[in-house]
Amino acid sequence: MAIKYNENNRIFKLDTDNSTYLIGITPEGYVGHVYYGKRLESDAAYYLLRTDEPPFTPSVNKREKSAFLDFFPMELSCGGIGDYRESCLNIRNDAGSMGCEFFFESYSVMPGKPKLKGLPSSFGSADEVSTLEITCIDKILGLKVVLSYSVFEREDVITRNVRLENIGDNLLKIEKIYSACLDMDNEDFEVITLHGSWARERHIQRHPVYLGKQNVSSNKGESGHQEHPFMALVTPETTQTAGSVYAMNFVYSGNFIGQVEQTQFGMVRMVMGINQDEFSWNLKAKESFQAPEVVMTYSGEGLSKMTHSYHDFYRRHMIRSPYKDKKRPILINNWEATYFDFNTEKLLDIAREAKKDGIEMLVMDDGWFGERNSDDCSLGDWVVNEKKITGGLRHLVDEVNKIGLKFGIWFEPEMISPNSDLYRQHPDWAIHIEGREATQSRQQYVLDLSNPKVVDYAYGCVSKILHSANIEYVKWDMNRQLSDLGSTYLDSESQQELFHRYVLGVYEMQERLVTEFPDLLLENCSGGGARFDPGMLYYSPQIWCSDDTDAVERLEIQEGTALIYPLSTIGAHVSVCPNHAVGRNTSFETRGHVALAGTFGYELDITKLPEAERALISEQTAMYHKYNDLVREGDYYRIASYSQNKQYDCYMVVTKDKSQALMTYVQVRGVPNSKSKKVKLMGLDPKASYMLEGTDAMYSGELLMKGGFLVKGMWGDATSRLYHFKKK
Length: 728
Hints:
nine-stranded parallel β-sheet
């Protein structure tokens, strides 16, 4: 059994294949954290809670209760009662006082995992996951607190969430609710986080955990370009293959916080949840509030093991799309090819040429609706512009289908332009503060998705277009963050619910979309990669990784993304040079090799491509079909990082049965008088022999991993090679 309870010790034991998580209950009913780490085969011991040493528990030493609360390793910490570390739950009563203290009431263990109402969440069969719910009560507030833990044994993952129920008669105000808390002794931890900006998302940052608080967060209404809802604590010696890793990833697409705090007593508290900035929730009598879930994993074998746990977990237990286990069509998107300057014939020209080279789908990006000839108007007016799309959308789609390509389309349903028919009819549907001129970004506002009428309108526009023609793919974009937080739909006491209700509105629309169009390939996007998170993966099997398609820039972006997300989720395309984001020239071959570590497609005008590059497209599409099963399903290993060595990048993917491996080597910067580079492969069968494709050379798996493989020198910057090894 994955979940056991020792009645004598009052300890819950949660086991995955390689880890154990222990929860203890004190005599008073405090729920405490005992242990998280390598799997324990023996019974759990209560002594690790340290309740038999000063300041002792309140039932033994009430005069030092605050000292106890400020040290005890809580499973979920409360604010206002004497624990001065970061709190996870702040509740204000109807008299205006803030304080909460809950105690163990009961527990239940169930096979499988319940859904979270209105929220994306992981799933699994009764054979794959089991769930522990610990019910606690604050009798003074009339508040039930349900701590939920779901154990996915095979993936070494435990998910956590919190549900609150107002079982009293008075209004309670939730001012903070985090979903996970992990209190541990400090092991000289370092913290790994992901940072960036538009066009340079998810760069890896690692530094020691200092005294005090260090966090990543977003207050933009989305998970964001700048910081990411992921955090890992690692021991100083941690590498790809060794060391301890404690990681959290938040299944949420709005404001978040992930924080580690080193305390005065040599402990660390790691928390994750909804950002408390501009958040509160009115919890009325007999109502409940469900917090999103956090995905936790422990690795005692370094970062690669963490990466594999997350990749396998998201592929098996978060992504629902029928595309998750099959190849995605190779698409060509017209955005960087034409921007707003296109019509039916231009799109058909691209489609005809694309078909010749093995491309399988044409995607029509921004500019097909309203009077949208630039990005300063028409968002919200989702009516086909037949001055551009002559003959109508169905005619265009039918003609593309006749050529032999599938058809996809771009939407930005969450936005509204000040210069639009929709805004002239419904200015109250835009998020804004009454009496204050709203801040524009990209000359657009954000629709108030807390309002059910607005949700119905926005979704209805998308649905109507999709029913009008044979559209098989949607790129769902969001190009600005939220500001001027005000809703004409919510009353004055509920305005701070807007951020969260907005995210719930997005989830409702996307749930309706994938339900009504179950075979649709949905790709989420947010100005590139500003909303690349597990919550979005619940609805779409892939997310546009970044608006920066430069092959060199993509190395660092895709490295950080692949640290936790499967390669099959990473939207990656080949584009033209000089690159539109940075002006760099790289070889067409290298652009293809880098995009192969993702969904693979094209972002260019194929009708204007130089012949030498045009000739490579058919080779690249064949390469994609040859290797995609391996890339999509295999285990990913990071061998070397250009972000660290400033010269080359190297990574590989290995099939689960270790029969094949594909290694990508990118020489970013040529070095004079250089020799062959020795790289040590990972994940192979040490007892097997492997043949290098295109040669007669045979290599021992053990030697490739321990001794290394010699990559011969290359000439120039941003050059690359693929190496395909097959077991003999």
